[in-house]
Amino acid sequence: MSRKMKKKEKIAKWVAGVSVSTMISRVFGLIRDVLIANLLGVGMAADAIFVAYRIPNLFRRLLGEGALSSSFIPVFVEYLKKKGEEESKKFVKSIFTVLLVILLLLTVAGWVLTPWIVRLIAPGFISNPGKLNLTINLTRIIFPFMIAIGLGALTLGILNSLKKFMIPALAPCMLSISEIILMLAVCPFMEKPVYGLAVGILIGGFAQLAFQVPALIKRGYFSFSFIKELVNMRSFMEHPGVRKVGLLILPAALGLSISQINMFVDTICASFLEEGSIAALYYANRVMQFPLALFGTAIATVSLPLMAESAVQEDYDKLKRTLVSGLRGMLFIILPSIVGLVFMNVPIIRLIFEWGAFSAHASETTGFALAFYASGLAGYAGIRLVVSAFYSFKDTKTPVKVAVLAMLLNIVLNIILMRFLGLGGLALATALAAMVNLILLLIFLRKRLGALGLDKMIMPVIKIFIASMSVVLVCVLCSEFLGGMSKYLHVGVTIPLAVGVYFLTAYILKCEELEYIRNMLKR
């Protein structure tokens, strides 16, 4: 077997591991969301907990999935390749200590400023004092969550750089399991069950961090001795690797904070719509995230350290091949997922969430938002992968410039589209802004690296599009004949049949991505 084929199989193995681990995490997350929907529906308590969670979750997005990992990994890979394991361990020790102190200070400041932060993010709650006070109390319970998530981001970056992908991908299970246990064992006995859920989120964040620590200890990248050395903060901050990450993380954090501003703008707008709108947006986004995390995020997770290695070696042709291969594999899964979520939006929501306090009206509202969110899936997944290419050669500024333009477009579209489509308008604005963001990123990347080889994607994408149209046919026919029957039968027949027909059509069209999927399944 050629070296190139072995490399492809190894990448497929890593992606498969992350995909399976992510699927397990998402299944637990889905169970958690079903229980939340059953417990709280889309009423006042649901809106309050989702706003409360969104504030510290901002740091999860910035640190866990973006700025810290993306800024840390290229520097850490450079240390591993050029300076050896001993120096890389000193670098990790320094950045771990600095990060811990920063997170502690941010948590204290955030806890004190919570009343003003909540008023800023959900101004529509001000007219409802009960809802406002509930949100403030929940936010203060959850706020220390950011310490666990920030440190967890660092452990994720270390393990991914060492080609250990499965443990970080499984870690979110701990968060979901903690929430599930609290909802089943504690919440039913509380006067206000939502407080039990908040405590579950806090415990789960630290459980998620603890799950990754043994793997770090095994590789010698974690030691409790750093606690004794906090007095040496100045020497840690002066470490050249920490300064490098600091210079990279500022523009990266700015870029990702801009994407978070988009979410907060959505929250602000939704707080003025009918009660339950914020919760409906959350549930729709969670369902949309399932295929995105299952494959799109898995490819981006594996691709970043690989592209970072290529950048260190100045092998930009290899970097571009990794990028294009990732885009093709991502589209093979994402395009049929878009079709399925758009045409089966309400049936899927009914099957998953329509229990207990979650009404038929809530299903219609959430499904409406889901259809528009899903239309931007290719944009969301593509952005993660292409931004990783910029980060691999330590360019964190270009994604910021593009993100600013996308943010402004999203705000304008929010204001325009919510007047005509309400909640769906907010979701559609997010989807359109994401597609524009992706296109601009590809244009700037081409200017930086030259031709990316995207022309080689034309025929494969046409084949994937044709195969995806077979999913449309299955969804339409099944809705016609099964739409009036049980939701279990409708969704239970449609989705497996659509998947089977899609892969059969792809096989007939000889889609090369099937080999990629086959290599994954072998692993």
Walk me through the topology.
Layout: H1 3-40, H2 44-64, H3 67-82, H4 84-121, H5 129-142, H6 145-161, H7 166-170, H8 172-185, H9 193-219, H10 233-237, H11 240-270, H12 277-312, H13 316-343, H14 345-353, H15 360-374, H16 377-392, H17 397-421, H18 423-449, H19 458-482, H20 487-508, H21 513-522
What does this entry look like structurally?
The chain has helices spanning 3-40, 44-64, 67-82, 84-121, 129-142, 145-161, 166-170, 172-185, 193-219, 233-237, 240-270, 277-312, 316-343, 345-353, 360-374, 377-392, 397-421, 423-449, 458-482, 487-508, 513-522. The chain has one domain (11-522). With 523 residues, it is an all-alpha fold. It contains 21 helices and no strands.
Short structural summary:
The chain is mainly α.
The succession of helices and strands, N to C, reads HHHHHHHHHHHHHHHHHHHHH
> Helix proportion of residues, in percent?
over 70%
Distance between the termini: 17 Å
Ranges with pLDDT <50 over ≥5 residues? none
Q: State the total count of DSSP E strands.
A: 0
